[in-house]
Amino acid sequence: MLLSFLEMLDMHVHLIGHNNPQEATRDTIREYLEEASRRGLKEIGFADHDYFWDQMNFPMIREVAEEYPNLAVRIGLEAEYRPYEEERIKHLIEQFPFDYVIGSVHEFDGWIFDIQEEEHMHHKKDADEFYGRYFEVVTLAAKSGLFTTIGHLDLIKLFGVRPKKDILTLADQALTTIAERGLILEVNTNGRYKPVAEFYPERRLIEEIMRRGIEFTLGSDAHCAKVVGRDLEEVSQLLRQIGVHSVVGFSKLEKIRYKLV
Ligand SMILES: [Zn+2]
Ligand SMILES: [Zn+2]
């Protein structure tokens, strides 16, 4: 098969789901790793939300991972970035030797913007204003020095409301900081299953990111085993078409490059 030489990874996987945040069992972990193996992934990274910290069981992931010698199983964290909580995040990161840490903005100025209940507010508010503010907070996340990766760069579009200003202008400062700091951006396929119905980030941003020499990783944002690796072959192919030659995984905060050609 044409794509079989593409090396694949999924670095944004949640074991602990939003609706049923019980502790993951060995069997749950096996289901994820089975799906990753079935899809031919070389590397999978669990990055649960920091607010489920008490339910996380890293030794159990390590233990089950030993049953899958052909799959690199990484442990990361998706940290909720709020500018006034850098100390809290720093403290969490110090508790475990993470392979990578994703900094994500799902909330700013007290507005949790990515939940269904807030969709109407996206239509009511000034899109240029809230996109601008969102990217300011993303810039602060990139400046914080806490993260290896910035999650779903243009998540603010999830309900399909677009700014009048050019997205490249709105994201400019964030991209400059991300490039300066050597941070990685993910192509996160979950956006396709939201009202906006496209990957994070959109294609123009993907092309701009490439032009600026920022490297990519891949993530499904799976919250259940069957979503692991979803659409990532397509993304790998898209990246290769626009001239990206590798994607990045992580081990103990060090970048590992996987060739796309
Ligand atoms: Zn997220
Ligand atoms: Zn996530």
Low-confidence stretches: none
Query: What fraction strand?
Result: 15-25%
Largest sheet: 7 strands, parallel
CATH level-4 homologous superfamily: Metal-dependent hydrolases
Through-space gap between termini: 14 Å
The CATH class label is: Alpha Beta
Tally of contiguous helical segments:
9
Strand order of the largest sheet: 1-2-3-4-7-8-9
Bound molecules: zinc ion
The CATH topology: TIM Barrel
Radius of gyration: 17 Å
What's a concise summary of this model?
The chain is of the alpha/beta class. A seven-stranded parallel β-sheet has the order 1-2-3-4-7-8-9. A two-stranded antiparallel ribbon has the order 5-6. A two-stranded antiparallel sheet has the order 10-11. The chain has helices spanning 26-38, 58-65, 86-93, 119-124, 127-143, 167-170, 172-181, 203-211, 232-242; strands spanning 8-13, 41-49, 72-80, 100-104, 107-108, 111-112, 149-150, 184-188, 216-219, 246-251, 254-259.
How would you explain this protein's 3D organization?
The protein is α/β, with parallel strands linked by helices and 261 residues long. The chain has helices spanning 26-38, 58-65, 86-93, 119-124, 127-143, 167-170, 172-181, 203-211, 232-242; strands at residues 8-13, 41-49, 72-80, 100-104, 107-108, 111-112, 149-150, 184-188, 216-219, 246-251, 254-259. Strand 3, helix 3 (86-93) and strand 4 (100-104) form a beta-alpha-beta unit. The longest helix is centred in the middle third of the chain and has 17 residues, at 127-143. 39% of the residues are buried. The mean pLDDT is 95. One zinc ion binds at residues 78, 104, 106, 151-152. One zinc ion (ZN) binds next to loops.
